[in-house]
Amino acid sequence: MRKILLATSALVAFAGVAQAAESPITVTAGGYVDFRAALVHESEATSTQTQGARRGGDFATEYGVNLAAEGKGAGNIEYGAMISLDNKADLGEDAPADQIKMDQGYVWMSGAFGKTLMGDEHGASDLFVIAPTVGEGQIDGSYTYFTDRSTLAQMQPAFIDASENATKFTYYTPKVGNANHKVQLGVSFTPDSASTGNDVAKYMDNMGDYRDTIESGIQYTGNFEPVSVVVSPMAVFADGVNDARDATVFGLGAQAMYAGFTVGGSYVDAGHYNTMKDADQSKDQTVWTGGVKYEFDKVAVAANYMDGEGYAPLAGVTSYVEDFSAVGLGATYTWFPGLTSSADAVFFSQDPAAGENNVGHVLMLSQKMAF
Questions:
Q1: How far is the C-alpha of 92 from the C-alpha of 88, rounded, in Å?
Q2: Any idea which architecture 24-370 has in CATH?
Q3: What is the gyration radius of the CA atoms in the chain, in angstroms?
Q4: Other beta carbons within 10 Å of 277
Q5: Rounded distance between C-alpha atoms, residue 139 and residue 328, angstroms
Q6: Is 5 helix (H, G, I), strand (E, B) or coil?
Q7: pLDDT tens track for 247-287
Q8: How many Cβ atoms are within 10 Å of 305's Cβ, its own excluded?
């Protein structure tokens, strides 16, 4: 009888360990709704595509839904999936769309080996830091939804689209170091820059401008009491397709935090990114940012600046912008958990090699609920 009881106890204990090692999959849902009201001015009155009078402002609503699943297996292996749907405008679109579209969809695994993500997601550029922002993002935010892409270049702090969701494989190493100093490396591989979801490009002519893109980033975090820092080098290598030139992009970003203040900036050299072999497009393409943020209680304020040069589609043709500058001012107030009001002001100036200068601003108020 005792042997039977011991054996039964052992089986119960083993089952308990197995259940503890492999937890049930948990599914969570979340999302956000972001209402915006903006006043807009551009000195270049009209584009070649729309000859009507330019409006001075409008309302817009952006919303998204996230569905996440997560489980834990033996050996402290965690795994999961994320599906993100929203109505955000793609890069270059004039305004947020009125239909829900796939934003991200990927599966992931993490453990002592690091973390892998497979599917439609941002990639290793997520490790890159720029000038600090708040709320609607100022120079890296949603002000471009209210401007005309035919008259104003969509200049970005990382120059490349750091939020694109082409199907890729991403690997992040564990954060290596001690309690005060850690380093993490991320690398992504994207076979086709224009392929998302279930799309498969069967011929070279059906691909986007780049194939076999390797995106890499390193992030160092250091704690030097009372100051903490983040430093993030970035590099992107891509093979051009359909007459696009091979691209090499290098960048460096850094931030320092002290007593509620964050100061930082970034610099990116985009080389021949988004230029064509058969065109005379060999001028510099660079962008840099700088700024400061201060957070206290429920309030956060920020001021940031961006200056760049490069090729951009304007009035239906690729033009060289000799100087693009933007000054951003922003403030947020958190009423309750998830409920935030923001004020954003972006003042921009664009000097193209050919054509009219474009000077203007976007003044925006927003109310956002994240859940």
A1: 11
A2: Beta Barrel (2.40)
A3: 24
A4: 12
A5: 6
A6: helix
A7: 999 999 999 999 999 999 999 999 999 999 988 899 999 99
A8: 17
